[in-house]
Every structure is written in C-alpha cells, then in structure tokens.
Automatic annotation (TrEMBL), chains A, B:
Name assigned to this protein: Beta-hexosaminidase
Phylogenetic lineage: Eukaryota, Metazoa, Ecdysozoa, Arthropoda, Hexapoda
Domain Beta-hexosaminidase eukaryotic type N-terminal span(s) in chain numbering: 70-204
Family membership noted in the UniProt record: Belongs to the glycosyl hydrolase 20 family.
Annotated catalysed reactions: Hydrolysis of terminal non-reducing N-acetyl-D-hexosamine residues in N-acetyl-beta-D-hexosaminides
Length: 632, 632
C-alpha cells in the first residue's frame, strides 16, 4: 500500500521559474512566523535570527515538519525541500496528454482548471469571480517573469471510480541548477491517481503575504496511495432536502480529502425527492414541494461533477422499511397498497421514527414500480455499487395487515415473526433480482450494499444474504459481535459504527427533550481514532485481520450525516473538518493518535476555508498561530 | 407586564385593500394545508371539505391556533381574525410621523424599509437584490389594485435602547365593511415599541403560493410588552474574529426575536481586535492580523445598525484577567510590565485556558492605558451599561511577580492569597473610577456589569462591589448559592447559568479529547425552560422573588456563545434557533413548557430562513408539514 503499483505512466511535468526568497519590509505586524524545532513559531521580527526569514504562517506550515501541510498524510515516502520559490498563478501553462483519449484529456483539463482556481483562492482578496487578485505581469518584477508548465503524458482510460481503482501516484518536484525553474513530475496509472497528485501538489503551495505571491517547495518526493478502497460520507436528502449546489460543495470537500464515495441516501419515509421518469407519481406525491426535487439532469450532472473530483456517487434506495411518502398513490382499487403504515399512528408501534412506512412485500404492483425506480436510478448512478438499505424493518407493520396474512395463508403459513422474517428475505431476494435485471451496464456485476439489521444478523445473514452478493455496512457499535461474524463468513464490510462515525449525534433531541439518541457529539479526535482494523481485535487474531484485509473484506468506512437535523444551512459545519479526520484514518490508517495530527488538521481546515467551504471551527485562532501550545 | 403602560401615542395607521380569498387551481401538489382543530393538517386537495380552502402552510400557520405564527408570544391580549386578505408588497405607502423629531422620523423610515424587505423575502423566488418577484400591478388583477398605507403619528424622542425603556405596544388590524381595505393601528410610547409592533405585524403576513401574493389577517388585536428588561446574547470576537457583516446578521436575528442586548465580549487574552485610536499599539500587537480589526467607523456604524433594530450593544472590556495579547508593548524599560503571564507556560498554572494573561495591578502605566481604552470604548458604545468582566482571575499569576510583591511590601503587606484579593479589589475600584471618569455622557450613570467570580462572591462581593455600582451576571449553575445571596444583598442580576444558556457547549474538546467542558449541548427545549424566577426558588420565597423582580433586581438574561470553536462560518447555526427559545423565555416568561411552543418555534425558524439567516435545523421538514406528529 502507498507505493505505486505500476508506475509506468508519466503524467505531468510541471516546471516553473524561481527566484530566491525575498525578505520584504514589515507588513504592519511586529510579528512573523518562522520554523524552529519543527514547529512554526510566532516571533517578533526584531528577534528573528540572522539565518531566519519572516514567513507567513501558511508558508511556514508547508515544510516545517516532516508532513508539512499535507492531509491526509501520504502512505509512502515523503521528502520535502527546505527552500521556497515564488510564482504567480497566471503563469501556469498546461499542455494536455497527447496520447490520452479525448475523454480523459477533457477530464484532466477540468482537474487542472480546478487546480488553477485553488491557487487564486489562496489569496485573501480573491472574490470567487475568476479574477486574479495577484499582481499582473510587469517588467522589473522577477516573479512575474516565471512560468509554470504542466505537461501531461498518457493515462489509462479508467472512466469511473471503481472499487480498488488505482488511486496511487508518485509526485516529484525538482528545481534546476539556476534555481529559476522547478519541474513537477506526476506518475500515476489512472486519472484518479493523477487527480490525487494535483491535490497533493496544491498542498505544497501557499500564499505568502510577505511577497504577495505564491510559494512552492523547491523540491519534494511523495509516494502515496490509500489503505482502504472505500472512503465515504452518507448524505441524507429525505429528512430534509439539500439543494444540488450544496451537494456540489460537499463533493468539493470530499475531493480536498481524497475521499472517494458519496453515499446518497436519497429517499426515505419522509419524502421522495428523486424524479423517476418512469414513475413521476413518486415525487408528485412524495416530494416536500415542487421546488424540492432532483431532476434527471441535475442528478446526471452531479455524477459527472463527482467523477471529475474523484468521487463515486453510490445511490441508496432504502427498502423495505424507510419507504413511505411517495408510495401512497395507486394501484387500482382492490389491488391493495404498495406500501403500508404510511404516516401511521402511533408511530412508535410501526417504525423507529416518524413518519412510518414500509413496502408491502405481498403486493405485486409494488415490485413493478420498484423495478422501474431501480432502472431509473441505475440509468444515472453507478452500476458497480448500489445500496439497497434494508435497515430497521419493523415486523409489526406487516403483522396486522390482511394482504400479508392472505399472502402467507396461500403459502400455507401463519403470520408470525419468523414467517415475516422469511417474507423479508423473499422481498430482498426479489428486490436484488430487480436490481440485477435493471442494471444498465450488463458487463458489470452490481454489488449490493446492505445495512446491518435483523436480516444481516448472526441468525439470518447466511441464509438470506449470500456473501457473494452483498457488502454489509456496519452501523452498530464497535462491540457488536456481528462484526467478526461477518468477516469470518466472508462478507465484505464497510464500517460506519455510530459510536464514532455518526456525525449527526450530540444535538438537542428532535423527539422529546434532552439530547438526541446517539449523543454525545463525536469530536474529530474520536473520528480519527476509530480504526476498522483495530475494532476487529481481539475477536479476530492479527493474522485473521490481515487476511481479511488482503482478501478485500474490509473495504473501508463511511461517516453518515443523517439529516433529521441538517439542511444546507448547517450541513458543511457538521461534516467538516470531521470528514478530514475520517479521511486520514481511511487513506493513511495512521498508527499515531489524534494528537500527532492536530496542527495539520487545523491547517487543513484553514485550507478548506480558503477554498470557500464552511467547516466548523476547532480552536481559537491563537492556537493556529501558536502551534502546539493549546495542549491538554 | 404586557399591557401598554401609557398608550397615548398613535403610531401608525396601516390600511390595505382587500379581496376575498381566491381558490386557485392545483399548483402541482395533490396536497394542501388546512386548519382543523387548531392544527395545520396536510390533506389531499380532493378530500378538502366544502368549507375548507387550500392554504399554503405559511398562511395556515398565521391563525390556526390562538398564537398563530407569533414569536415570542405576546404577554397581553391576542385576538386573531379568521379571514385572510391578499396584497402585493409594492402597494405599501408609508407616511411618516409629522410631529416626530427629524431623528425619530429617519429611524422610523429605516424600520419601515426593513419591514418592506421582509415582505419581499417571504417570496421563495426573492434573490435578495431588492427586485420584487411578485406580479407587477396590472389591470384586471384585483390584488394589484389594493394599497397598503402606513401613517405614523407622534413618537417620544427616545434615542437609544435604555434599561426599562418602554418596548410595549398595542397593534390592531381591522378591515372595512367592503372588505377591500384594512387599517393597522400601532400604539406605542417609543420608537422601540413601534419597531416591535412592526415585527409583530410582519408575523401576521405570509406568502401564499396558491395566489402568488401575500396574505394578511383581516383583523387582530395584540397587546404586548416584555417581562424582562435585559434580553441578550454574548458574542466573543477575541477567541476568533467575527467580521462586522456577520455581527450585523446576528443583530438581524436578535431583532426578529425582540431581543434587545448584544453583549460584545470584544477582547480577551487571545487577541485584541478593537482599534483604540488613543492606543493603536493594542491592535498592532494584539490583532490576529491587520484584516482582523474593528475600526472606529465600523464599530460606530454597528451601534447605529443595532439601534435601528432595537438592540443596544453592551461592550465588555474584560479585566484584570482575560487580558493578554495586545498588552505586551511598553512601557519604557524599568517601568515594569502592563500585563503579566502573557502566553506564559505551563498555561494551566496561570490561567483557565491558553493563552494566559492578566493585567498588572501594580503598574501605573497600565492604568493610564486602561483609561484611554475605556474612553475610546465609551466614545463609541453605550454609556448606560458597560461590562467590566472580572471573571476567572488566577491569583497565582500575580503571586510570584516581583513588581507586585514590591508594591504590596510598600504598603506593609505580604504577598498572600488574601492580600491579592484585596489588590484585585483595589484594581476593580480604580478601574471603575476610570470608567466613570471617561464616560462620554456625564449625565448618565454608567452601570458596570461584572461576572460572578471570587470577587463577586458571598465572601467578598459586599466589600468590593457595592450593589449600587454593579450588576452581577451569573454564569455558574442554577444551584449556585451566590444567586439568592446576590438578590438578598440588593444586587441587580443578569442570568447566564451555563448549565442551560451556554450555547458553545457539547462539541468536541479543543483542549485534550472527549467533549468540551460544559457538555452536553443545550437543546432549545432546555434553553426555553430555564426560568430565572424559578431558579430562585426554593432559596427565596415566592413573595421575595416577586419583590426582587418588581425592585428591578432581575434584569433578565443572556445566552453566551463563547468563540473558542466559533467563527462566522458556523456562528448563526449555533445561535439560532436557540436564541428564539431564550427570547420567548425572557420576553414572555411562559408558564407552559417547551412542548406547547414547538410548532411555533419551527415556524419561527422557517421565517428566519426566509429572511436569509442560517439557523440550525430542529426537525425533518415532514414534522413542519405535519404539525404535532413528531411527538416523543
């Protein structure tokens, strides 16, 4: 891991002219930063030693310690140069890969365009209008005479993020003998590795207010690749609608952290915002309003937006529970109901939270509609991974229903808890086949993801959910015995244990009073230290854990942000910077604890702010300016 | 309380032409809202009864229950009409008070301008550019022919929010016999009462998507006034800087809730962002950067911005602790240090959180500078209330200092805990006199506010903090025995007990791991039910509590949002809608619990969103659309 598996593609050559560091006059503050003992310290300018240059904090952070401002930390070799070189962003020249396909060339164009805007964003006066706040090129300004050239070589034609796609890269920076140019070489096997390299490159550059220019390290070598293949977040757009523009901003944030999966919990009992072109009744009845619908065009555009940023959108259609509003129309009289218990009262008898709703597994029309919805989803979203939900079925919703009782009676069965579990298993089997039947890309094998549940349990999983067909996403606590059970029974797993990775915990209750069910709030430190591999110990031996990892059974993890108490107004602050902590756990799987990452995550969060995201604040700015002094 | 004390000023006549309710064709959704049994229910349009009109949710909320969409709930009579009348915002005509002073007229102009924009904001297509998204006036459109006239009568010339300023009003709406106009009469004694009436009036109006117009109640009578005089929030701009534009948005939010105090904790040990024109060294050394300074012009403009919105800015200059960065320059060699322990390590020995810093009470130069800063603050901010801080002095910072030891020795005293308390008392006395000496408006008596502390304690308060000079702000828990002590000893009090009203609690720790010190998060329900009067029981008898209230000793309360983990990016979501819960507690002091207020606070929060604020989400939208069904 972390080493380039097949580093034969030379992706980019990046060269820029350099000038020696300028020591400028004071810019108002009596203080500047400088690097001492691998720490950026704030000192009075008059007390700088003769060999010390006054630096902006951002520039100091680039290389003051062994990992600089890199996030997540690379898994291979990291060597960072000790000198800085100045340039302006307008002097970046990009030459696309001559040997790549038109499609990959276009995607690389996009990635470099995004990279270029990051450089503008580092300037504190950038207005997000595309207009550069840096000095224009003028004669007599040495910095302005430098240029930065990015040459892209050939790239494998991997169109989409797929599980275990090669995301690794080697990034090298080197300055020439005259110290007036630097070459950046990016070696990667896929577009996604190259995009990751560009993200890392952007973390080797910072704005310097001493010279009003950008500074880049004069040399560096970084060899990097992820530990876990699946690194994601869950966004829920059913409890509360989240506009597409906000989802794009979330994807931006994922891309800053090399997170690669957006699990879109698009529907639930509360509302049905996905416009199904085959079944427009779903949004007509189920959307909160006509303004709160995702059109086919919007969803399609979002998939492409994510792809360019190295992110796969994994759509979830949760069933048979967590389906209600939107299902109340049809079928014709006498043919029963497609979903039961919709908004039924008292809700606590029929579901885990209001409003209730559960598909009717005895209703033939439901399966027809379900198949159409699956097809519409699979036409837009990824065909490799598809989330089928499967959590929190409340059998009592089915228990009293005449249609179900009749259905079972015809099979010679009574309506009991155990026959209802069988019925659930039957539903799941039929639904799985509908997914398979309606997948767009027949060449790929759709892998279904299911939540841990009564069906995905020690008692029932092997019977109803063949390990070849299903990935199980674990949302219970780290101590749940189902976790080692699943590994021992050959299931692939995604970790989302709520005691560390549920980002919606810790706020006031929305049902009743006090704090919400999974309180307390999970701080970034807790998120950071939740290691899937460690969770398997001691139930599994180190050898068993290693074998399961190598066998691809521990795909990675995902932090859900359930949206009962979230909408676009506070979404970003609840996600970030905690998703950064998740990202380093899953990309790097560090063997150091949160404390070793603290000053880097604070700097990384600052970079998120520069790029226009709205992350929560972890500390006073004093702690940022005075590294390591806000210790416990 | 709640009845107009002297309702002799007729403030406004508001008349608008009316048309009968239009029942429009379906607008896409099969559902509409209607009012049944005092609850807004979502029903299929085809199932509406003959006597029911399909309503937008916002219109339904206006009068479906006895309190409609009013927040905070009025303290006097509330009568709401059962019919709605349509109008467009462009047809509002305002005639200013002929008898009022030029200054009051100008302020009323501003208040009506703000009110006019609220009307535009209610339209979901409003782009916040001043351009109305409502239909233009056209012949044949009955709604467009109606007009709304606001006539303002005379108003007392009360320039600023002062403690116990009359904020009450009586608001009456009446439609004429032809049902094509309504008159709104606002009766109040001061500008601030009139502004409150306009806020209430705006809560009787909603956008109706059935007719693409605004609807207003055809008649109403509301008599209203606050229970507590002091209703505020604390904003801290030292731990993290908050731009002026964000502070304006907070003030907007206060005005929606009839909160009247913005306690600005402007400086602390971390940074000194207030530009003191007499002592520019303070920001030069103490600001986080030259971009993170409040200029005199900005602060002055903010005071006026707040005044127009019924809010007083109470400036705090915390001392002698919570003062550090910014104080490190001068005086000349041999004259000691103005502040001690600045950024001193290990911080836990010298202060409660990093970085340390405490003024040096033995340093004469410090007092000179302190006097200048007080003058600069009092030139800009309110001269009636001034917060002197006084919390969390750590005597150990002073204990080892030679300057202090020498100073005490000259007075024949040893350097002990008790003599240091005396020294603190001496500092406070000198500082108080400096405030008095430097107040701008000599006619007013500056009332100093102090936090509960070792000085404001059962042991020391009477000796060092005369009850005539000081208001004590209580930040400890509801059980602190100092609370009844202070009341019994004639102190005026402001309640901010952290166990209910600290809005920064419950997030991840910023020192060490786990959750922050005052966890858990205080949900709006907890905020709502924290009653200052109830907190005094059983330590005081009901008669004693009543006497203390009538004697003006229970000024009100304030929710602090300390900013260690807050900046402008997540500020609003941490403040709102919890400040709405605080507002109803302090304006109305309801004898009902949070549950009775739930659907109203959700609607009130929705109105905040319409006005462009970024409050946190309390519930799924389903609960908003399906009132009373998300019960516990």
């Amino acid at each position: 891991m972390g080493n380039l598996r097949n580093p034969w593609v030379l992706l980019g050559i990046l060269s820029l002219s350099l000038i020696p560091n300028l020591v400028q006059a004071e810019v108002g503050s009596p203080y500047a930063h400088t690097c001492r003992n691998k720490t950026c310290v704030k000192v009075e300018r008059t007390k700088l030693r003769a060999d010390e240059t006054p630096l902006s904090l951002d520039v100091c952070k680039l290389n003051c310690n062994a990992l600089g401002a890199l996030w997540p930390k690379p898994t291979g070799k990291v060597e960072l140069g000790q000198e800085f070189l100045s340039f302006y962003p307008q002097n970046v020249i990009f030459r696309n890969a001559s040997a790549a396909s038109v499609e990959v060339k276009a995607t690389l164009d996009e990635a470099v365009k995004i990279f270029r805007e990051y450089l503008l964003m580092y300037h504190p006066d950038y207005k997000r209008d595309g207009v550069s706040p840096f000095p224009e090129n003028k004669e007599g300004d040495n910095i302005a005479q430098n240029s930065l050239v990015i040459d892209i070589g050939t790239v494998w034609d991997v169109k989409n993020v797929v599980l275990n796609v090669d995301e690794s890269y080697v990034l090298s920076l080197e300055s020439n003998n005259q110290r007036n140019s630097v070459s950046t070489s990016i070696v990667a096997n896929t577009y996604f590795g190259a995009r990751n390299a560009l993200e890392t490159l952007s973390q080797l550059i910072a704005y310097d207010d001493e010279t009003n220019s950008l500074k880049i390290l004069d040399r560096a070598t970084i060899s990097d690749g992820p530990v876990f293949a699946y690194r994601g977040v869950l966004i829920d757009t059913s409890r509360n609608f989240i506009p597409v523009e906000s989802l794009k901003r979330v994807i931006d944030g994922l891309s800053y952290n090399k997170l690669n999966m957006l699990h879109w919990h698009i529907t639930d009992t509360h509302s049905f915002p996905f416009y199904s072109k085959s079944v427009p009744e779903m949004t007509k009845y189920g959307a909160y309003s006509s303004r709160k619908i995702y059109s086919v065009e919007e969803a399609t555009e979002l998939v492409e937006y994510a792809r360019v940023r190295g992110v796969k959108i994994v759509a979830e259609f949760d069933a048979p529970a967590h389906a209600g509003n939107g299902w109340e129309w049809g079928p014709a009289a006498g043919k029963g109901e497609m979903a039961l218990c919709i908004n039924k009262e008292p809700w606590s008898s029929y579901c885990v939270e209001p409003p209730c709703g559960q598909l009717n597994p005895a209703n033939e029309n439901m399966y027809q509609v379900l198949g159409k919805i699956y097809k519409d989803l699979l036409d837009i979203f990824d065909n490799e991974l598809f989330h089928m939900g499967g959590d929190e079925v409340k059998l009592d919703c089915w228990l009293e229903n005449a249609e179900i009782t009749d259905y079972l009676k015809k099979k010679g069965k009574n309506n009991t808890q155990e026959t209802l579990i069988e019925l659930w298993g039957e539903f799941q089997s039929k639904a799985y086949n509908l997914v398979k039947d309606n997948q767009q890309v027949k060449a790929n094998n759709v892998t279904a993801i299911m939540w841990t549940s009564e069906l995905a349990s020690i008692e029932h999983a092997v019977q109803y959910l063949p390990a070849n067909n299903y990935v199980v996403q674990i949302w219970t606590t780290a101590q749940d015995p189902v976790i080692p059970f699943l590994i021992k029974n050959n299931y692939k797993t995604i970790f989302s244990n709520y005691d560390a990775w549920y980002l919606d915990c810790g706020f006031g209750a929305w049902i009743g009073e006090g704090n919400n069910w999974c309180s307390p709030y999970k701080g970034w430190q807790k998120v950071y230290e939740n290691s899937p591999l460690q969770l398997l110990s001691p139930a599994l031996t180190p050898e068993e854990i290693d074998a399961a990892y190598k066998n691809g059974q521990i795909l990675g993890g995902e932090a859900p942000l359930w949206a009962e108490q979230v909408d676009e107004l506070t979404l970003e602050g609840k996600l970030f910077p905690r998703l950064s902590a998740l990202a380093e756990r899953l990309w790097s799987n560090p063997d150091t604890n949160w404390y070793a990452a603290e000053s880097r995550i604070v700097q990384s969060r600052h970079r998120h702010v520069q790029r226009g995201l709205r992350p929560d604040r972890l500390q006073p700015e004093w702690c940022h300016q005075n590294e390591e002094l806000c210790y416990g």
